[in-house]
Design brief:
Elements: H1 5-8, H2 11-41, H3 60-84, E1 89-93, E2 96-101, H4 104-112, E3 116-117, H5 118-126, H6 128-131, H7 135-138, H8 141-152, H9 154-172, H10 189-209, H11 216-229, H12 234-248, H13 252-256, H14 259-271, E4 277-283, E5 287-288, E6 294-295, E7 300-304, H15 305-309, H16 325-330, H17 361-378, E8 379-383, E9 392-394, E10 397-399, E11 406-410
Helix pairs in contact: 9-17, 11-14, 11-17
């Protein structure tokens, strides 16, 4: 058996080898430090303060700090607002920094700046080329179809939506008093497969069918949680719906005349939206904002939607859920169109703002009001518990608690 390597090396050679390792280590350490210092000195975003950790440029740190943002995005955005009061700050996102603003001048500036691209911004945040396909950005056919043909045809579409509600909702919320008791458990695997196979394919089909309204369903869930948590508003909403439907029917005009329900949904979106941010943009060239904030080409900038929606300068008692807040605002002469669910502004950002605001918001608004109207007219609604299910946060996303439960009891049929 050969002797160990250390016994075959002279003490002098062993010392030289260890000295070489130390030299390599210190060379790498000094080189890395110099690299960080040089990157920091020439970092184009160095003048913008950082929230959530030191502003260390390079490849590794933003990704590490981004994990903190994924877990604590709402808290970090709140800290940034309280510390910098509307001035720009940056937070770490996966592979990069994103610049965050919330004051009205910045919002007006970024919503329509020709060199701040919404297409590139959304593609980066939503990874559309991977989740939907590359043609979603290159081919704008669907945007034009929604903005023009669908929006102009809402009055034609609404009766079909009402008919679908009358057929679909009783299927999802069956009346337990109408029909036989559920039979005993099936005893054979063959029978189980026979029963479950159609359900599996039905759900698969619905998943494909509802892929386009992935934002409507959580919005509806938020609204149902809010309604069940504040049952005192159910009867005023129901009275309005029954009165309007009796006069105008299930039409676009009828949905437009539901001021209280429109206000309820708008307030639900303000307090419990889908995202913490809005107006995602990517700088296609170097851009300097009105206050001197410099955005080098490739920088991502967003609006802090959560801060805007909870700012007492924008809303009286912004921390309170006030369902008829916007209905009261619309009663002021000349203000009736400014506070609808579909109207965007610097103070209300769920659909974005400016010429690039969500083109499908008009259909989404009608759809949400139709579903809520049908449920309120045909069902008693209550929360299974005493507290509203807490929202779940993951990075910039806000999701209603999937484990929350809302109870429905069939009322005397008064549907369409």
């Amino acid at each position: 058996m050969p002797p160990p390597l250390s016994s075959r090396l002279s003490p002098t050679l062993l010392y030289i080898a260890m000295d070489d390792l130390r030299s390599i280590f210190w060379t790498l350490a000094v080189s890395f430090t110099a690299y960080i210092l040089m990157r920091r000195r020439f970092d184009p975003l160095r003048s913008i303060p950082t929230v959530g950790g030191p502003s260390v440029p390079g490849i590794f740190y933003p990704n590490l700090a981004a994990l903190n943002f994924v877990r604590n995005a709402k808290e970090l955005l709140t800290i940034g607002h309280e510390k910098y009061r509307g001035a720009a700050f940056k937070v770490a996102f996966m592979g990069r920094w994103i610049v965050v603003v919330s004051d009205s001048k910045h919002l007006d500036e970024i919503k329509s700046h020709p060199e701040l691209s919404i297409a590139e911004g959304l593609d980066e945040f939503l990874q559309l080329k991977h989740t939907i396909g590359a043609t979603a950005q290159s081919d704008r056919f669907h945007v034009n179809a929604i903005r023009d043909q669908l929006t102009r045809s809402l009055n034609v579409v609404m009766p079909a939506v009402a008919e679908e509600l009358a057929l679909a909702i009783p299927e999802y919320i069956p009346c337990t008093g109408d029909g036989p008791w559920i039979s005993g458990a099936r005893r054979s695997i063959q029978q189980t497969v026979r029963i479950l196979k159609p359900i599996f394919y039905e759900r698969k089909t619905k998943l494909q069918e509802y892929g386009a309204d992935w934002t409507d369903r959580p919005s509806l869930t938020h609204a149902l949680y809010d309604l069940a948590t504040h049952p005192g508003f159910i009867q005023p909403l129901r009275d309005e719906i029954e009165s309007v439907i009796a006069a105008d029917g299930w039409t676009k005009r009828g949905m437009n005349n539901l001021w209280k329900l429109d206000s309820f949904l708008r307030e639900s979106q303000r307090v419990n939206g889908l995202f913490l941010i809005s107006l995602a943009r990517k700088a296609m060239k170097d851009v300097t904002l009105h206050d001197g904030t410099f955005l080098p080409k490739g920088t991502f900038i967003v609006a802090d939607q959560c801060t805007v929606h909870n700012d007492d300068n924008n809303y009286e008692h912004a921390d309170q859920f006030d369902p008829f807040r916007f209905a009261r605002m619309r009663e002021v002469p000349g203000e009736d169109l400014k506070h609808q669910l579909v109207t965007t502004s610097r103070e209300y950002l769920p659909f974005g703002h400016g010429k690039h605001a969500c083109p499908g918001r008009f259909f989404a608004s009608m759809e949400l009001k139709a579903v809520m109207s049908y449920l309120l007219v045909n069902y008693d609604i209550a929360l299974d518990g005493s507290l509203r299910p807490e929202n779940q946060y993951f990075g910039i996303d806000i999701s209603p608690d999937p484990s929350g439960r809302v109870l429905f009891r069939r009322r005397e049929p008064r549907g369409p």
